[in-house]
User: Fold these one by one.
Assistant:
Number 1:
Amino acid sequence: MKTSFFKRAIFFVIPLAILLIFTLFPFVWTFLTSIKPQKELFTSTLHYLPLQPTLGNYVELFSHMKFVHNLANSLLVAIVTSICSLAVSLLAAYAFSRYNFPGKFAVMISFLLINMFPSVLLLIPLYSIMRQIGLLYTPWALIIAYSTFTIPFSVWLLTGYLNDLPISLEEAAMVDGCNRRQGFIRILLPLTVPGIIATGIYIFITAWNEFVFAVMFTNEGNRTLPVALQSFIGEFDIQWGLLSAGGIVTTLPILLMFMFVQKKLVEGLTAGAVKG
Amino acid sequence: MMKNNKLTPYLLIAPAVILMLLIVAYPIARSMSMSFLKYVLYRPFDIQFVGLVNYFQVFKDPVFKQSFLNTLYWVGFGVFFQLIFGLVLAMLLNQDFKGRGLVRSLVLIPWVTPGILIGLMWTWMYDGNYGVINDVLHKLNIIKDYIPWLARSNTSLGSVIVTIIWQGIPFFAIMILASLQTIPRELYEAAEVDGARPWQSFVHVTFPMIKQTVFVTSLLRIIWVANSVDVIYIMTNGGPGYSSLTLSVYTFVKARAALDFGYASTLSICLTLMLSLVLVVYLRTLSKQEARLR
C-alpha cells in the first residue's frame, strides 16, 4: 500500500499539482494585483497577499466613462457577430450535413483553409476596403472582419453537430406530412440548439478577445475592451492595479460563458477538427 | 442523403460562399496586387507599381532575416513544449480522481483568455523590479540578481515563448484527452497480461492510437502560433531591437506603425507561402483520413 501511495504521489499528484499551479497562477496573481492599493505594488519586498485589500481599482475603472463605453462596444460587436455568423453558417452547415452535391468537398476544404490564413494577410486589404466604403471606425468594420474567420469555423462546428443527428428523424417527420422546411424547423433545429449555443458562445468569445483587427479598425470613440486595455498603458503610465482590474473584468464574463458550454464545445471541436 | 431539388444545397451555401468571396478571396487578391506597389498610406500621391521590388527587398532586409529565424524558434520551441506538457496533462486528466471535471475546466481557461490579457499578466510577472518571477527565482536561489526578462535581447524571445507555451498547453491537452478516451481498456489489460511495463504500454498501445491526433493538432497549432500577433506585440513589441520580432508581428508593425502597406502586404504573403507548406501536409493527412472513412 505504501509504495503505491508514493507512486501515485510521484506520477500523478505532484505533476498534476505543478501543471495546475502553472496554469492558474497568472490569473491568481492578476486578481491579487487588482485588489492591491497602488503603493503595495511597488515595494522593495514583495507581499504575496494584499495587506489592505481594496476594490478601489474596480471603482476607478468603472468611473471612467470610456471604459463603460468600451465594454458596451465589445458587447455590441460580439453579439452582432455571433448572430450574423450563426445565421449564415447554419444554412451552409445544413446543406453540408444533409445533401451530397458536386463541389461539396472543395467548398468545405476551402472553409477549413480560411481559418488558417494569417490575419495580417487580410488586415491590410480589409483596412483599405473599409476606408473606401466608409465603414472604418464603425462597429461594422469589426463585425465584417471577424466574419472572415467565425463563419468558416462555425460552419465546420455546426456541420459536426448536425451530422450527429440521424437523418431518419426528419424522414419520419416527412412521412407524417411535414415538408423539408418544417422538418428542419420543427424537428432538427430544437435538437441542434445546444450545439448552436456552444458555437455562438465560441464566436462571441473569439470576437470579444480579438485584438489585431480591433486595434487597426477602431478609433478613440469605438474601441473594444482589448484595445482599451492596451491604450491604458500609455494613458496612465502603467497602473498595474487598474490594468489588472480591467483584465479581470474583460475575462470574467468570457470564463463564465466558457465554463457553461465547455463540454459541448470540446465535443464539437474534437469531432470536427481531428476526425476531419 | 436525401434527393431533392438539385439547386437547394447551392442556395443554402450561397450566402456563406458569396460572403467569403467578398471578404476573404477579394481582399487576398488585393493584398497580392498591393505587394507589387510602392504604397505608403500617408503618401497617397506616391503610389506606384514597382513589380517585384518589394520581394527583392525581403531578401536584402536584415530585419526579415532575423524575424524569420525568430519565427522558427517561436514556433519550434513553442509548439514542441505545448505538445509535451499537453500530452502529460491529458494523460493525468485521463485518470480517475475526485474533482476531475472541475480540474478539466480549470486547465482549459488559458485557451480562451484574451491574448492581450495574457500579454499583460506575463509582462507584470516578468517585471524587472517588481515581478513575481524574479522574486520566486531569487528566493529559490536560482538567480542572484533580478533580471529584466523582457528588456534584454538575450532573454526576451525565451520569455515570450514561455508565455505562448502556457497559452497552448490546454488545446493540446483537450485534443489528446479526447483521443485517449477512445482507446478501449481491453488493450491495456491485454498489454498487462503480456507483462508490459507502463512505458512499454505507452509506446505500443497509447501512442499508436493518439499519433494521428497529435500530428493534426501540431499542424494546426504551428499555423496558429506562427500567426499569433497579440502576445508578442503587447509584451515586447518585437524588441528590444528585433530580438523577439516574428514575421507576423513584423507585418503588423509595418502596417500599423509605418503604414507601409506595400511592403507589409509582401511580408504577409511571404508568411502565407511558408505556412502553406504546413497546410499542404495538413490537407494530405485529412484527405487520407477521408479516404479511410469511406
Note: Chain A touches chain B through 91 residues (CB under 8 Å).
Number 2:
Amino acid sequence: MSNDHSAAHGGSSHGSATSYIIGFVLAVILTAAAFFVVMGHSLSPSATLTAITVLAAVQVVVHLIFFLHMNTTSEHAWDNKVFLFTLGFVMILIVGTLFIMDNTAAHMMSR
Amino acid sequence: MAHDTTLSDAHAEHEHHELPTVFGFWVYLMTDCIIFGSLFAVFAVLRNQFAGGPTGKELFEISGLALETALLLISSITYGFGMIAAHKGQIKSVQMWLAVTFLLGLGFVFLEVKEFAHMIADGAGPDRSAFLSAFFTLVSTHGLHVSCGLVWIIVMIIQLSGVSAINERMMNKLTMLSLFWHFLDIVWICVFTYVYLASMI
C-alpha cells in the first residue's frame, strides 16, 4: 500500500537510467575538458581561469538538472526559491570578501 | 480577503509539493552550501600566502586528482542507478548499488587521506602557511562530509536488509541521501577547479 503511494509520488522527478547516463557523459566531458585546458598550457593564465570557470559553472548546472532533478515544476518551487536565495547569499559572501580583503591589502601595502 | 486567497492558493498548490522532510533536508543542504562558500572565500583570500612554503603548483599531482574526481563522479551515477532500483522496489539491487557507491566513496576518502599524509610527512601540513591552513580546512571539510555519507550508506544497507518493501519513509531516507551525495559532487567540482586546477595554471 505505502509502496504504491511512494512510487506514485516520486514518479515525476526521480530520473531515468537514460537521464542519469546523459548527465554522467556530460559531466565526464566537462571534467576532462577542464583538465586538458589546464594541462595543455595553450591558453594564457587568465583565459585558462575563465575557461575552467565556465566549464565548472556548466557542470554544476548539469549536476543540478540530471542528478538532483531540479526543475521548474510547482513541486520544486520552494526548493528553487531557497536555492536562488543561497546562490545570491554565497555570491555576496565570496565577492564581498575578495573585494574587502583586496582593498585592505592594497591600503596596507601588504602585497 | 487577501488572507483567504493565500490560504486557498496554498491549499491548491499543496498536492504538488514534495514532502516536508525532503524540503527540510534541502534547506539543510543550502546552509551547508553557505559553510562551503565561506571556506572558499577564505581560501580565495589566502591562496597566495605561502609564507615561503611550498605552493599548490609544487604540491598537487594531476593524476591523483583525476583519479579522485573519477571515483566521485562514477559514485554519483551508481547511486543514481540505486535510486532507480528503489523506485522499482528492488531491494537487493538497491543494496548492491549502495555497496558499489560505498566502495567508490571509500576509495575517494582513502586517496585523500593518503594525499594529506604525504603532504604532512613532507612538512607541508596545515601549520606550514596560511595557504595550507585554508587548503586543509576546505578540502578536509568536504572529505568529512563524504565520510559521513559513507556511514549513512552503511546504515541504509542495514536498514534495507530488514524490510520486505520500500515504504514511503525509507524512500525519503534514500532520496535525502541521494541529494546529499550528489551535492557533495557539486562541491567537489568547485574544489578541483578552484583549489587544484587553478593552482596548476
Note: The CA atoms of residues 136 and 157 of chain B lie 31 Å apart.
Number 3:
Amino acid sequence: MDGRLRGVVGTIAARVGSALLVVWATATIVFFALRVSGDPLEAVMGGPGSQAGPEAQAAAAATYGFDQPLIVQYLRQLWQVLTLQFGDSYTRKQPVVDLIAANFPSTALLATLALLLAWVLAVAGVLIAQTSRGRAGQLVRSTLHGLETIASVTPQFFLGAILILVLASGLGWFPVTGSGASALVLPVITLAVPVAGYLAHVMHGSLAEADAAPFALSARARGASEARVVLTHTLRHAALPALALSGWAYGSLLSGAVVVEALFARPGLGRLLLEAATGRDVPVVIGSVSIIALSYVVIMLVSDAIEIAVDPRLRPAPRRVQEVAL
Amino acid sequence: MQFRTTAALTSLCAIAALALTSCTSPGAASDTAATAQTGGTLVYATGDAEPTCLDPHVGGNYPQALISTQYLEPLVGRDASGEITPWLADTWQVAEDGLSWEFTLKEGITFTDGTPFDAAAVQANIAHLQDPETQSSTGFTALTKVESVDAVNDLRVRFNLISPDAALLESLSQPWTAMQSPTGIERGMEANCQTPVGTGPFIVESWEPQQSVILVRNDDYATPGPEADHDGPAYLDRIEWRFIPDAATRQAALAAGEVNVIDNPLPIDIAAAEKEGSGIGHLDAPRPGSVNRIELNSGQTPFDDVRVREAFIKSADPGPGITALFHGAATQSFSPLGSSEPAAISDESIFVTDVDAAAKLLDDAGWKPGANGVRAKDGKKLTVRFPVSTNQSVAAEQSLFEQIQANTAQVGFDVQLEPIDLATWHKRLSSKEYEAVSAPYTKVGPDVLRILYHSSGVTPAPSGYFGNHAMLLNDDVDALIEQATKTTDDAERTQLYAEAQQLILESYVILPLYDQQNHFLTNGVTGVAKLGTVGTPTFVNTQLTA
C-alpha cells in the first residue's frame, strides 16, 4: 500500500471509529435518559395517563421485553443498533428501519439543496461585495455585510414564518405546505439563509487576507481584472475554511430540519425524531440519531475529499518527488 | 382522554398570525357568490398529534377520535342537547335491576368490506376492546362494567353488567367504542391500525405517515348519524387528512385556500374569523366532560384548609384574563362540567372576586404577611407549586396562569408555575408534588364527575394515573355519585349530579375556567357539523363551494 492510500484508509478508519463511538454513546445516553424520565410501557400503551388495565400492560411488557432486566434490554438495544435493525417503534408498531427509510430521503434532499443554495448565496454575495468599487460599492459592501450578520443570526422558525407570510400567503408564489417541487422552495430558503450568512462571513475574512497576498498583487500587476483575481486566485483560498465548515453546516442543517419540517408540515427525519422524543419512543430515537450521526460522518469524509481537491497543499506528495527529495 | 402535542413554535408565529389577518382573505370574500358543488376533495389540516394507529380501540386519544369519526360509527349517538339518539342501534331497553341492556340493531347495514353488521359483530367489537392484546385504554375504561355480550338473535344483543351503569349509553356513543368490521379486526393489529374498516360515510384508503391519510367516499353509506341532513352517501369524493403541527402554518394554508378545514386555531385567528367579511367560517365545538379548571390539592398543606382554598379562589380573578387572552373565543365557566353537558350546573356566587375577604381568610387561617409580600405560617411560606403541562396548555392558557399568579400574589400566595412536558407532569402528579394543577378530561356525560371527584379516584390505577387531582374526600359527594351511577331515571340522575356538583363547588377545590376549547375554521366549504359526543367534526353534509 502506498503512503497516500494508507493515509486515506487511516482517515476513513479513524472517522468510522469515531462514528461508532458517537453512535454507541448516543444509543446509551438515549436509552438510559428515556428510561430515567419515564416508563417506556407508557409509550406503548398510548402515552402518559393511559388507563390500560394490568392485563393489557403485562401483555405489552412481554411483547416488548420490558419484563426482562434492564441490562438485558440495554444489550439487546445495542445489538440492534450494531446490526442496524433498531427493532420496532413502540408507538407506530412498525420496524424503525422502515420509518427511517421512509423519512430519510426527504430530509437528506432538503439539507443537501439547502447546503448548495447556501454556497451559491454566499459565493454570490462575496463576489458582488469584492467587485464593487467606489462610493456606491462601499454602500453595497456594507449592506451585504449587514445582511450576512442578520442572516446568520435569524432563527429559522422566524424566517420560515415570515417567508410563509410574504411569499406564500401574501403573494401566493409558493404553496404553504405540500409535497411537490414548488413546496421545497421555502423550506430550502429557510434552512439555507442562516448557513449562507455564516459561510459568507467566514469567506469574507479569509478573502481579505488572500487579497493582500503577493499572488493577488502580482495578478493585478499583470493587469487582471478584479473579477478575474477573485475567481481564479483569491476565492480558492477564501473557500477553504468555508469548505471545512460545510460538514459542520450539514450537521446543523439536519438538526435544523426538525424546526423546518414542523413549520412546513414536511415528512422527514427531523419530525420523526421530534415526535419520537416527545413520545418516548426509544427505538425510533436511537435509530434516527444513529442515522444522522452516520450521515454526518459520511459528509465529513466528502468535505475532506473536496478540500484536498481544492487545496493542493493538503495532498500527500507524489512518490517520485519524495524520491528526488531523498 | 386527550393528549395534545403541539409544536412549540407559537410565540413568534402568533405575531406572524397577527400580521397575517391583515394581509389575507381577498380570495375567500367571494364565498357568498360561490355555489355548493357535489364531489371534490376536502383538505383537512389537524394540529393534534398524528395518530399512531387509526383504530381508536387501540390506545384511545382525541386525535384518533377526530379522524375515526369519518369512517367508524358507534352504536348510539348524542345530539346537541345531550340526548342519546339511535345510530347503529335502533332501540334499547334496560332491565329492572339495571344489570342488562338489550339493543336492537339497524337492519341491512354492512361494513365497507362487505361484512354484515350484526349481533356477532357487536360481540367481536366488545371482545376486541376488552382484549389486553388490543392495548386499549379509553375504550377499555368505558366498558369496565360490561361482563359479557350475548347475541339474542342476529339483530339483537344483550350487554350483561357486573353492576348497574347509568353511563353505559354515553360510553357507547364515544368514538373510542365505535364499531369495526370483525373481518378487519381479524387481520391483526398492524393491518387494522393502517386501514380500519367501519360503516361510516368515508373509507380509509391509504395512510402516508407525517403526510396524510386519504379517505374516499363510501358509496353504499346507509346509516346517516344524528347530524346528517340527507340519506345516502356523503357529497364529497375524498378527504385528504393532513398533519400540520404549527398553528400559524395551518392558518396560512387555510387562508391561501390550500386546506378547507383546520382544527386547534390560535385564539386571535378565531377572533379574526368571527369578523364580518372574513370569509373564514368558525365552528365552536366545546368538548364534553369537565371544563378546563384549576384543581387545588386538598390533601396537603396549605390547601387542606378550606379557608386557604377559598382565599385562593377569591383572589384569582381569572375573568378579565379569559376575555383578553382568548379574544372572546372562550367564556368564563362557573361549573365543574362543560356547557355541552345538559346536567351541568353553574354557581357564579362562589367565584366572586373579593381580595379583602381573601386576606381576612388567610389571617384567620394563621397565614401572616411576611417577606416580599409572601405570607407564612410557622416559618413555612404560602407556596403553591403549579406544574403546567406544555403539551396540554396552549400559550393563552399559560398566560392566564401567569395572571392568576400575579392576582393571588397580592394577597400573599407564592404561586410557582413550572412549564414541563407531559411525562414529567404526570410524574409530578403521581408523586403529589403539586398544590395546584390544570388537567383536561374528556368523557361524554356527567359520569366524568365519578372519575374526577369520587374518593376512589385518589388511588392511582395500575398505570399510575388517578383522576381526583383535587384529592377530594367527601362522603356525601361519593354517595351522590354512586347513586347517580345506579339510577336509570334520567330526572333523578340529573338531580343527584346537580347536588354533587354544588357540593364540589362549595368545597372550593376547583376554580373553573372555561369549556375545553375545540374550534374549527373553514374556508370554501359548507355543511361542516359537529357531533354531540366529543365535539368531532363530521363531513357527511359537507360540500365545497369553490
Note: The radius of gyration of chain B is 24 Å.
Number 4:
Amino acid sequence: MSATVKTAQQIFDQILNKEQMFILDVRNKDDFKDWKIEGKQIDHFNIPYFELIDGVEEIMDKIPTDKEIIVVCAKEGSSQMVAEMISDQGLTASYLKGGMKSWSEYLYKKEVYSDEKMKVYQFVRVGKGCLSYMVVSGGEALIVDPSRFTDIYKKAAEDEGVKITHIVDSHLHADHISGGRILAEETGANYYLMQSEGAVFDFKALENYTKIDFEQVSLEVIAVKTPGHTPGSVSFFVNKKILFSGDTIFVSGLGRPDLGGKVREWAKDLYDTVYNKVSLIVDDVIVLPAHYVDFEEEVNVAGYIGEILGEIRKQNEMMSNQSEEDFVEHVAQSASSETPPNFEEIIAINRGVEEAEEEKKQELEIGPNRCAVHHTN
Amino acid sequence: MNATKILDAKGLACPMPIVKTKKMIEELQSGDILEIHATDKGAKNDLAAWAKSTGHELLESTEEDGLFKFWIRKR
C-alpha cells in the first residue's frame, strides 16, 4: 500500500463535516505546541519525524485502526516518509500536501450576507485565523483586510463579474503581510489606510474620509476611527448593517493594545472606542472581525465567523459597565501574553520600510495570529 | 574544526538531511566530528532538535549565503 495525499482544502472540508481524524504531527515538539491543525473531531499525536527514521513499529500501538490517519509536517517531505512507513505496516495513511506551510496559506470562501444592494463574502484563512472580505455591489467590489494571496480576490471578483475598485486595511497588521498594496497595484483599485499607521508608500489616507461611496446603489462604507488595537485602527460600517471591526472587536474578545509598547495609553483609546463609539451602534448590526481564535467555538450556525453586536455585548463583560480604570487595568493584565510570531518584522513590511521575498514572507507568517485578548467568561 | 567526515546534503529537502546525518553518524566512532553542509532551512531547527534527542553534541553551526554548516560530535 502506498500513502495518499490530502490537500489543506480536503482536510478543512472534513473538519467542517465533523469527520473523525487522527493527526500524526511529525514536526518538532515546540512547533507542535505553538500551532497545529485544530478541530473537535481531531485526535493528535506528536513525535518528531527524526525519531521515526528507523521505522514506526514502536508507535504503532499509539495509532488507531478505526480512524483516518493523516500525517503532517512542516513542508511535506517527512510526513510523506512517515505515512509510507505506516502504510507499509498495513494501515491506510495520508499526508498533508505542502505541509503546515500550505495549511497556513489556505483560504476558504463563504457567503455571509446578501440583500438587494450588496453581497458579502468572508475569506477564512484557516491555518492562521485571519479573515478578509469582499463586498460586491453592482459591478464593483471592495476588499477588506486582504491577505497577500491576491489571486484569490481577483478570482472571486471574476466569478462575480465585478471589478475590484476599493481596498481597505483596518490597521497595520502585525500577524500577517497585507495584500492591500499589491492588490491595488494589480487591479488599479484605490487603497485606503490610516495615515497615522505610518506606512511610507502611496495610499489614500482614511483620515480624509468619513465614508467611501461606491457604485450607484447607495452603498456607504463609513470609516469609523476605532483606535485601541493600534492608534490608527478603523472599522467599516456598511449600509448600517455590517461592521467590519478589524482587530477592535472580535466575536470572543477585544483587540490587544500592547503591541506598540504603550499598553495603557492604547487601552484608554480602546475604552473610548468601545464605550463612546461602538456603544452608539445598534444591537442587530453584524460584526465581522479580522480574526478568530477557535474556528469551531466562534463559527455561527450560518457557517461564518461573525455575530450580531448585541450578542457580543451580552457575552463580553468588558464592553459595558466598566470604569475606564478597571478596563485599562484588566486589559493591561491580560495583554502581556505571547506576541504574534515575528510581529516587528511583519509590521515593518506592512509599513513599507522593509521588503521581503516570497519565501521570507511564508516563513514570517507561519504560526498563530495572537491578536486578541480574551475578556469573555 | 577538524571534522572526521563531511556530509554533503546540499539541495536535499526534509527529511533527507537528517536521514543521511543519522546514517553517517552511525558509521563514526564516539567523539568523532561530522561536518554537515545543507541548503534546506528547516535543517537548522531539525538538526538541533535531533542532536538534543539523541545526545550527540551540536558544536557549532554557521550560515552563509543560504549554505548551512553544522558540526556534530558523536556521543
Note: The CA atoms of residues 110 and 303 of chain A lie 8 Å apart.
